[in-house]
Design goal:
Strand 6 (about 135-140) and strand 7 (about 145) form a beta hairpin. The chain is built from 17 helices and 24 strands. With about 600 residues, the chain is of the alpha/beta class. About 35% of the residues lie in helices and about 15% in strands.
Amino acid sequence: HPETAPPSFMSTFSILRKGSVDTTCGLIITLLSVVDVALLLVLSLGQAVASLFKGVTRSSSDLLLSRPSVVVVGGSFSGLWAQRALSDSYDVTLVDFKDYFEYTPGVLRLFVQPSWLSRLSGPLPRRRNKLVVGEVVAVHPTEITLRTADGEEAQIPFDYLLLGCGSSYAAAPVKASPREPDLPSRRRSWEEAAARLARASSVLIAGGGPVAVELAAEVLDAYPSVSVTLVTSGTSLCSGLPAAVGEASARWLELRGAALQYSSRVESVRPDSVTLVGGQVLSADIVYPCMGAPPASAPLEGSLASQLDERRRLRLTPQLQPAEQNGSLASGWSRVFGMGDVASLPAGELQLGHTAELNAHVAAENMRRSAAGRPLEEYPRGAVGCERSPRVFCVSLGPHDGVVAFNGLVLSGAVAAVTKRILEWTKVAACAERPVGVAFWKFGDAASAWLSMTVLPPPPPAPHEPKVILLFDGVCLLCSTFVHFLLDHNADQRIHFCALQSEPGKDILTRHGLPLDVSTVVLIDECGAHVRSSAALRTLRHCGAPYCFLYALAALPRPLRDFGYRMVAASRYRLFGKDDGSACRRMTKAMRARFLST
């Protein structure tokens, strides 16, 4: 094993490993480029011959005017897949605040090698579709409103709308912003970020997911002498992926000197420090917050506000159309489809580029079916032929190592690095509508769906845990009264309950990196764990009017809110007493099912 070999062997092995990865990738990409040129020549010749026999009876503009208009918002994975699928049959308008595509899963390398941007990006397509560069500010049932670079607003009407708005990210410049409408401005952002990192002697990364792991690996590979600390609230890295992925990533990082701090919840982040729950402050020259990617759903906050869930993602029907809270189709929005990071996906689905494209499969097909008056397909069966979509992902550990996984199969090492680079190259080619890229991913999608239905099915879902759990002091009469109140006023019955002192309660606290503290209620929801006043107010959001309006108090500074909460908590036994069992009420079977027990 190289990890236990002497330093001289390690150095030689590392050089050989890097050389083999670079050589293999170079040969495969050269072969793909040759195939791409050959396919382009064959397709061009075929089109020329077809035009001779077919003749031209109507101009292109007349054909465009006669076809239904489709607006696709978002020039990333889901939006570009839909654009490629629909442009030959419909009048497609692609809308984005930038005029280029960027392969987001590979951008973390740009922190240390900004010149790599040229391999990860390219102009958005406009050969078979219209391209409008502007920021969408509002969405309506028959048109969208966008703001152009000069500040003017314009409306674009549509017959059908596909929303792939994407997401944002706290660690700039991981996700492009409207301040970077073209590649020169985007390149400057990456050069500035790389220059800042090059001056640092210590880096702190808040988060334990794939983005945090990949960023830590890129820094350690490029700057081995830099001190890297990774802080996560979980008990492992990449907890949403198979355990082998997190274990391999942790071994790689620790071998290169990274400090991994588990079960540490971040309370606040500053440019040069983070404060943990409990008051501990960790400092570094640079801090990168890598704790999730909120959806870019601001344009939907107006007319689609009631269709957004607690995470501000667009709630969808199984057919990927806007849905009401009860899951039914939202009135007036039958010609709108959601996909990608802005969409609220079924339980167990990961927000990945491949998943976004599977969304686009069903959204584009259902748009066609809607136009033809045919029944719509459901996601994910309409994309992959089964009830669970494939879990395909690759975590890079520097440019020459990584972990790649397909459903339950996990491979680490050089093969993962080669896989990641080939995926990058072919995806950029596909988004540029180059024949080899389009063909590669058509075959890849079909193969992954077939494998998922036959020899490598997705792993079974984790044991069910309710989406919203309220942990409360089981002997506090005030807490018991609050639980009874919620049983009466939580209309959608999403809140489940668990005593802090119970074994399930302790297990949940441990999984979320929280201590056993009976002085506070704890709310676990899609946005993580919340304590004290934040937990109480977020719980009230799930109640009907007028109680849900109390969530407006969350706008007050948290220290002020928590001061009042602590005062009540400190005297709750003296003022309200303890629950000796006399406060119990007769509960229905449905009520009892909402309490987690041993």
